[in-house]
Amino acid sequence: MRALLTALAVSALVAATGCGGNDTTGAQTGASATAGATGTVNVFAAASLTETFTKLGKDFEAAHPGTRVKFNFAGSSALATQINQGAPADVFASAAPKNMATVTDAGNADGAPTTFVKNQLVIAVPKGNPNGVKDLADLTRPGVKVALCAEQVPCGAAAKKALDTGGVELTPVTLEQDVKAALSKVKLGEVDAALVYRTDAKAAAADVEGIEFPESAGAVNDYPIVALKGARNAAGAKAFVAYVLSDRGKAVLTEAGFQVP
After folding, report:
1. Is 38 exposed, middle or buried (CB count within 10 Å of its CB: 0-12, 13-18, 19+)?
2. Is 226 helix (H, G, I), strand (E, B) or coil?
């Protein structure tokens, strides 16, 4: 009887030890899921990504405890210049391949960029569309003040292409360095209309309306993203890019009005 009890005790101890080993393995597996993604991730992103990337940044931080995403939102051309001049960036998300090429051609990308969304222009007008704008031609009417992005900015290059496609010539009262600045002119009542991305008009739906126009179909912008070669947080950079490309990232972006590639 004593021998039987001893054997049972040993068996119980072995079983308990085995369970403890499994728990440890599970904890290690869970830890490895976020291994490497720690610290601050500096993301340079096109101004039109402000709302969506801000949300994705918070989601990323929640999914990767110990991380912090810091954004620099501006025109893609300005961001590309900053990166090539040595600005502390880990990730670059551009609103056009041309500005991304400025960075890749300089050898500052870690791998090939990936196009993650597309975006299309609309005519942003004040809520209620007081001037009755219906198409690009209406922007040339006397007294209608229009804001455009500068041509070196992706939204400006797209606007020029759309206007050329429609054979429409207009003289804007202001040329802005990013799409948010152009949109703000409409929101502040300083202009009657602006050519901005569909996503920006949707994000500002409380103040503006987005008028679709057919010429924009020929001026759709691809948005590429890449981790940078000089990243101070290389692991965090790759993890953030992967998160943007994930199903969760796509869901947030498409809900905001972006198109999938």
Report:
1. middle
2. strand
CB atoms closer than 10 angstroms to residue 228 = 23
- In this structure, what DSSP letter does residue 52 have? H
Give the pTM.
Answer: 0.84
Q: Do the beta carbons of residue 192 and residue 146 sit within 8 Å?
A: yes
Tokens of 251: 């869901």
Strand ranges inside the chain, DSSP E: 39-46, 67-74, 91-93, 114-119, 121-126, 146-149, 174-176, 193-197, 208-211, 221-227
- The answer to whether 190 touches 112, Cβ cutoff 8 Å, is no
pLDDT in tens, 116-132: 999 999 999 999 999 99
Residue 238's H or E segment, with its range, is helix 234-245
* Structure confidence by residue, pLDDT tens digits, 195-215: 999 999 999 999 999 999 999
Helix (H, G, I), strand (E, B) or coil at 222: strand
CA 232, CA 184: separation in Å to the nearest integer? 34
As a whole number of angstroms, the distance between CA 91 and CA 71 comes to 10
Asked if 214 contacts 137 with a C-beta cutoff of 8 angstroms, the reply is no
